[in-house]
Structure formats: C-alpha cells, structure tokens
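Field reference: sequence -> structure
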Amino acid sequence: MNFHNLQSLDLSGNRIKAVDMNVFQNLENLLELILSNNPISQLSCVGCTFDHMFLLRVDMSMSQLSHFDTGPLANFSNIRHLNLSSSPISTIGEAGFSQIPHLEVLDIRHIPLTTFPKTMLKGLPGLRTIYAENYKLCCKATLPEYFDLNKCFAPTDEISSCEELLRSDVYRFFLWIFASMSILGNVGSFVYRLCSKEHVSKIGFDVLVTNLSVSDFLMGVYLAIIGAADRLYHGNYIWHDKAWKESVVCQIAGCLSLMSSEVSAFIICLITLDRLLVFRYPFSAVRFRRRSAKVACGIAWFIGFALAAIPLLPMTSHWRFYGQTGICIPLPITRNIVNGRKYSFAVMSVLNLVLFVLIALGQVFIFLSVKFNSIATDPTRQSRDIAIARTLATIVLTDFLCWFPIGLLGLLASVGVPIPDEVNVGIAIFVLPLNSALNPFLYTFNTQMERRRRATETEMIRALEKRILAELYAADDNACAARNRSALTQKEAKDRIKTLVKVHSSCSLSSTDAFSAFGRKLPRTRGSNRGAACSVDDSALPLSKQEAISLIQEMLERKVVTQEEISPLIQRKPVREISENAIVTFRNIGSGSEDDDVFENLHAVSFS
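Structure field:
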C-alpha cells in the first residue's frame, strides 16, 4: 500500500484470517488501524525492519486469536491505544506488552485470559487506563509502579482478592465457625448414636439421623479444605489461582460439597416422611425400620454421588464445573455465563427448592396430626404440642434459610435479573453450610436435651405425687388417731393402765428393758422363764418406755384420769418411774373431774 496521506484505515467486518503487519509499512501517516470483526487467527510481521512512528490506535476486537504476542507490533512502537476485546485470547506471550512501551489505554474485556506473565504490564510506565475482565489484571502486583488503581476497570471477584482466596476476614471467621460446628457437631452426633445403648432399637429414625450426620460431616470437611487452601496461599493467591482451581483437591472439595448438600436434602426429606408416618399413624406398622431405612439412605447416597460426579465425567469435563470459583463450587446465581450453569441451576435451585417444599408440607402435616391426636383439654398434651410446633418451626426455618434463597435467586438470575456481588458472597459463605452446621443440634443434641428435660419433669412430678400422697396418708392417720382418741373410754384407759402395771410388776427386767420388751415374745433362755412371763399379745399397747409415758400423759391431758387417781401407782415399782415422769410433765394440768364409781378401786384392782 502506498497511500502516503492515509490516516485511518477501517477493514472491519471482512473475512480476513491472517494479517502481516509488513503491508502497512508504507502508510507513513497512518494513525488508526481498525481490523475488528474479522476471523483473524494469525498475526505476524515477516521481515519487518521499519519503525512506524505515527500509528496510535489499533483495534483488533472480535477476532479469532487464541494467543497474542506483541512481536508483530514491535515496529509500531508509538501505539497508544490497543483494543483486543471480545476475542478468545487465553494466553499472552512472555514479553507481555513491553514491546509497545508507549501504550496508554489497553482494552482486553471479554477475553478468557487466565494465564499471563507476572511482568506483562510492568514495562508500561505511561499506562493510564485498563479495561479488563479478569480482576487479577487490576492487582497492584501486576500493574506499573505508579498506576492509579481507580483507572483499572475490571469486575471484582465475589469471593477472592489479589492476596487471599477469601477476600475478607469476616468470610474467613464464619467459614471456620461453620466448619468447626459441622465437623465437631456431626462427629458428636454420630458417636452418640453409635455408642448410646438407648438408641439401639429397631426403629429407622436413628439410621436416618446417623446418615445425616455423615453427610453433614462431609460439608465440614469441604469447608476445612477451603480454609486450609486460604491459609496456604495467604498473601500471594493471585499467582496460584489457576493452579488451585484446576487441582485435584479443589475438584474433590467441590464434589464433597455438592454431594453433602444433596444427600442431606434427601435424608431430611426421608426423616420428615418417617415422622409423618409415626405421628399420623401411631399404631400402624407402615414406617421405616432399620433395614428399610438403610435401603432408603443407600438410594439417597447413590443419587447424591451421581449428581456430584456427573460434572467430572469426560463428556462434561469441558465445563470446568468445580474450577470456576475459588471455593470450588459454582452457584447458579453468578452473573457470569459459564459452562454447566444450567446443570447447576437444575440441581441447586430447582431440585432443592422442590425438596424444601416437600419438607415444609410434611412438617405442617406432622403438626396437624399431633393436634388431631391430642386431647384438647389436656394441659400436658397442649404443652407437648407447643414444644413439637417449636421444633418443627425451627427445622423448617433452617431449611428455608438454606435452600429457598438459592432457589429463588437462581430463578431470578435465569430470567436476567442482576444479582449483587454481596448476595453471592453471602450465599456461598453464610447460607450454603448453614444446614450442615445446625442439623446435629436439631436432630440429636436438641432431642437429647428435650429428653433430659422431660426426665427432670417426670422426676419432679413423681416427687410431688409422693409428697401429696404422704400428706394425704398423714392426714388420714391423724384423723383415724383423733377418732380413736375420742372413742377412748374410762374403762379402756383403766384396762390399759392395769396391763402396764401387771406386766412391769411381774417382769424381773429393769424398767427400761421391760418396756422395751413389752408387746413382744422374748426368746426363752435356759434356766429362765422371763420370755413367757413378759409376753403380752396385745398389739394395741405401746412398745417402748417412752410410748408408755406418752400414753399416761395423754390420759392426764384429756382428763380421762386425774393425778390423784394415778398417784397410788407411784408407790409400786417399776411403774413408779413412768408415772412420776408423766405427772411431773403434767403437773399444771389440774385434777379435773373425778369418777369414783369407776376408779375408786383402781389401786386394788390393778395389783390384785
């Protein structure tokens, strides 16, 4: 070309497949070269020895270049604006853009550039503006020393930064919190149900919860792997981003995460079905036993593993499903259109949303079944209904917080509604692992605390019942004793005192021993007839010295007999000791009325 005065050449929209920059050496005044929208796959400069000082702007957007090297542009050293946008460029030559040192504006938007030299932009002291698609191109480590970061326009990564896999300490803190809760909580739940004797039964509920613990434990392992990688690449993640996303560890972590999420969803659905059968048909044999529960859990594990393994198959490996983000799992709410997004949307949005609706409906039916089978006027049943409703509401709420936001936001993203980056981060860090962290406390520890609370309440109720019964028995005994005392006649009092006097006059024992043996048949010993002499078969009489004293005191107090009537007994042993104690105690009672007809011969009769 020998158009010496040509300043702008527009060859856009043609079918140019290869460009040799040597053809433009005679265009001495060329300022702008537009080659956009051409299927250019090869750029060269064969035998270029010239130095074109006037070309300022080159537009090669929408080409078919997969690799870009600035060597063919080295003879156009005064280029100030270079546009390579919307091209399938994935790699840049080792020299970067250093061969066009006066470059001021670089547009590399919408290109899948993942690998580039560390010094790609370092040799451009005049660089003022960058338009890029990869956030790593706007990191301080890749830019010239005095570049203004505000003039670099690239979307930020929702999760990672130039230095860290997790861009915020808040994300890091909560990730380790959820990882610790998932691992420790589910290990504790698994060990408790495996070792506790009270859970060794034929019911299938424990099998379901044990499998749920294993599934949620895998989510904790996934979180721990992400946390460990964040620590490993601390301070220089930008240079390990691609290697980490393509690593086997990242693929395994993403697979564990998706499998854990789906298996947990299926098992919670099975638990809801099991509880519904128990509460709706309490006397029916149609429910999960250990064998049927194991079969159901096996099916759930198979489905979950299949869903997680499909993106790793050879026919889907081009998706790079688990290597799209630093946390190794693609969310269907991202703004980027990536391979496998429809699959992610179908599994994590549609399927989980359907399972959530089934679980929520099941919990509602469980509560209605409990209400239907309860007695309306029974306060204990009403209290239990409230406790069950609280537990079911907690389960539905946690499931709602975990699955419903992902499903709803996935639906919105699928119809083109833009989702803010902060929402994506919140879903990935705070929502996705929520269920796995809380399930051990909902299905094991909460149940155990409820059992202990019920056991404590039962013990308190039993203690209260015993106390009430004891008080009722005591009141009944007191009433009977009062009736017996009120029915005691003077003749009965006389007979009792006579018996006391006779027994203790005839026994050779001391007064204390005599009263201790009173009413019992003493063992017969050789050379002694004491047992027969002191044996009185009268269960109504007192059995000890103190009881005898109490009996005489009661008679004096109730004025059945008087002090004067008892006084003659004092002169005889061993009853004198008892009578003196009784009389001293009741000295201030007074003599009361006398009945000479009944007691006038008391002394004589008593000792006859």
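Note: Confidence is low (pLDDT under 50) at residues 507-543, 570-608.
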